[in-house]
Amino acid sequence: MVDADNDWFERYEVEGGQVRRVSKFTRQDFTVPVETVEEEWPSWTPAYKARFASAFALSRRVALNDNDRRLLDFLVKNGEPTIWRMLAFSVVRNLERDRALHFLLERVAEGTGPLANYYQALGRLLASECVPILDEALSRHHREVKAHPALQCWDDRFIYLDYLSCCATLFKITGEEKYRANLKLIMRHPDAVIQNMVQTVATASGVILDEG
């Protein structure tokens, strides 16, 4: 193990002399044998594991080959919350629907935040069977938002993001106006940062707040 960024990312200089890091997994010819990961995983630090998972998740390959699918299975089985959050969309794209749904709902039930990625991933599945679980989660998030009426620290942003993402996903799945009304209400918050968060979540989830 040397440097996770150099091992799993390539550096490109962009306009203005800035450096952009791109996952090596975006190259179709780049591969890491799952056997190598299985053997070396116990010796990797948590930070190194997270960077590997991040690079893998950022590949966005249209179709995973057999090795890639085995890598995803390994990360799902041997990961932890930091890694699982990165894999939420990879799971939806590449695992069977029932297995992806089980994985995402298990993470929501565990409640180890932030949970926004899981909610947005569930929105892509349009799984009506998860509505009762999401409604229960939404009640918890609403209580947390009420207990934090303003952003006092960085982590308070995640409280709002989880609430907003859960609302957006429930609206996307059910079409019930009460969930979009929650987003519109938060949109009137005096803090411009929170207003921007609402718009960002709505856009990412395909929810139109102002129908003109």
Order of helices and strands: HEEHHHHHHHHHH
Please give the radius of gyration in angstroms. 19 Å
- Label the overall shape: globular
Poorly predicted ranges (pLDDT <50, ≥5 residues)?
Answer: none
Mean residue pLDDT: 93
Bin the strand percentage.
under 5%
| Proportion in helices | 55-70%
Number of helices: 11
The first-to-last residue Cα distance is 55 Å
Structural class of the secondary elements? mainly alpha
How many domains would you count in the coordinates? 2
Order of strands across the biggest sheet? 1-2
Find the count of extended strands (DSSP E, 2+ residues). 2
Q: Major sheet: size, sense and barrel closure?
A: 2 strands, antiparallel
Task: Name a few traits of the molecule.
11 helices; two-stranded antiparallel ribbon; 212 residues; single chain; mainly alpha; 2 domains
Note down, in words, how this protein is organized.
- The protein is mostly helical and 212 residues long.
- It has 2 domains: 1-95, no CATH class; 123-212, no CATH class.
- The chain is built from 11 helices and 2 strands.
- Strands 1-2 form a two-stranded antiparallel ribbon.
- Strand 1 and strand 2 form a beta hairpin.
- The longest helix has 19 residues, at 156-174.
- The protein starts with a helix and ends in a 7-residue tail after the last helix.
